[in-house]
Amino acid sequence: MAEAARPRLTGHLPGLDGVRGLAILMVMAIHFVGDATAQTFVQTVVVKAASYGLLGVDLFFVLSGFLITGLLLDAKNGPHYFRNFYARRTLRIFPLYYGVLVVLFLLLPLVVAPLPPLLEQAREHQGWLWTYTTNFYVAYTSSWSSLTYVTHFWSLAIEEHFYLFWPLVVFALRRETLERVCVGVIAAGLALRIGLALADVSELSISVLTPCRIDTLCVGALLATVARRENGLQMLLGRCGRVALVLAAALLVLSTYCALAKTGLPVLHQIRNTLYALFFGAVTLLGLRPGTELVSRAFRSRALRFFGKYSYGLYVYHGLLAWYFYEVAAEQRLDALIGNHWLAIGVKAAIGVSLSLVVAVLSYELFEKRFLSLKRLFEAQQAPPATRAMSARN
Q1: How confident is the model at residue 157 (pLDDT cuts 50, 70, 90)?
Q2: Which single residue of 45, 202, 327, 344 has CA 20 to 30 Å from 334?
Q3: What percent of the chain has pLDDT over 70?
Q4: Can you tell me the distance from the alpha carbon of 80 to that of 106, in angstroms, rounded to the nearest whole number?
């Protein structure tokens, strides 16, 4: 492999911006198309396909596990390991997250009275949001509508839990031990989900509980750890394409069996979820592959990278907008105005994505960047080369 094309794990990785962009497009698909009312068979197929956009959250989890674990491993044994990590995560996440909560629950009630019924429902249970325990409330209610406008914050809660404890795990363990821990967590997560499913816990509740989703994050963490073996990254990138195809075929076979046989679904659905996580691990690695192959070029494309850059704001704002569309019956109004249901669905999706993007870009450029600029005060520093080499051997 030519030196110019040699894969790397340091610095800005454009392909992973594209992976992030794909993830947010998948999530927006479920909220702007997957909740549409289907009137024909073809529309049913389209809406059903869009509903699989929920898997974009799994892709986000795998990508986060990969990036965060890599950052921690590279900074391990360097100065201010904990301070730098927690400070930088706080500057990236908290301003937007808590800023939205302040606007929705503290400022908006001062100028809008009464609040729209669905937003008032969320306000009554806002304590779960301020404490990053949204996912536990959603699991308790077993309903995606339990917190209405901000129910989608459940995944942000899981990621925050991971950010809180994972630096301690990485710091305490040798790289080889960390690999084994990741494998153990993946297996334990699958076993826990199967056990809860057999105990008749709803699939929705299982899907939002942190202990049941930490294995998805650990798939990314495992890949980041293996990639830091000697020649580990080259080995992973050389195999990820074939592995992705095998996993895609396995998922297709398993999903077809589940749809036709309808037996053993509580167990099979959880096995499928683990296969999805592994598949998205392979997809994440595809975003790192050098060269001009189609998938690699797609992930490095300007369009996907653009959506990836603003993915955090897009995730936060698009969910609010989707619930507003629901509350004002936007699809039905567009249907009556346009007179064509296909076009109404498309227009609603186009408006939703466009408005979400405008708000996310403005939020990032005018608000979030002010805090992000402070991250320079907490630059994560790698350990000296000799120390890193010793850490890798340990």
Answers
A1: very high
A2: 45
A3: 93
A4: 36
SS3 at position 115: coil
Q: Which two tokens stand for residue 330?
A: 């936007």
Cis amide linkage into residue 109, ω under 30° from 0: no
Evaluate the CA torsion angle 286, 291, 292, 293 in order and state its sign: negative
What mean pLDDT is predicted for residues 345-366? 96
Alpha helices in 199-310 (DSSP H): 203-208, 210-226, 232-261, 265-286, 294-299, 302-309
Asked if residues 333 and 37 have their Cβ atoms less than 8 Å apart, the reply is no
Q: Which stretches of 56-202 are assigned E, i.e. beta strand?
A: none
CA dihedral 360, 160, 86, 128 (to 10 degrees): 90
pLDDT band at 10 (very low <50, low <70, confident <90, very high): low
pLDDT tens figures, 229-282 = 999 999 999 999 999 999 999 999 999 999 898 888 999 999 999 999 999 999
The pLDDT mean for the chain works out to: 91
Going by pLDDT thresholds of 50, 70 and 90, the confidence category of residue 137 is very high
Structure tokens at 366: 């005018």
pLDDT above 80: residue 196? yes
* Encoded tokens for 237: 């990138």
pLDDT of residue 292: 64
The whole-angstrom separation of Cα 319 and Cα 157 is 15
Encoded tokens for 93: 């996440």
Residue written as tokens 């110019």? 4
pLDDT of residue 285: 95
CA-to-CA separations, 109 to 103, 113, 114, 316, in angstroms, rounded: 9, 6, 7, 20
Q: 3-class DSSP state for residue 76?
A: coil
Rounded Cα distance between 286 and 113, Å, is: 50
Contacts of residues 359-363 at CB distance under 8 Å and 24 or more positions apart, as own/partner, are: 359/313, 359/317, 359/321, 360/310, 360/312, 360/313, 360/314, 360/316, 360/317, 360/318, 361/310, 361/313, 363/96, 363/313, 363/317
Token pair of 228 as six digits: 């830091």
The answer to whether the CB of 314 falls within 8 A of the CB of 356 is yes
Q: List C-alpha distances in Å: 71 to 8, 78, 189.
A: 13, 11, 24
Task: Report the distance separating Cα 80 and Cα 325, nearest Å.
Answer: 46
The tokens 């795990």 sit on which residue?
Answer: 169
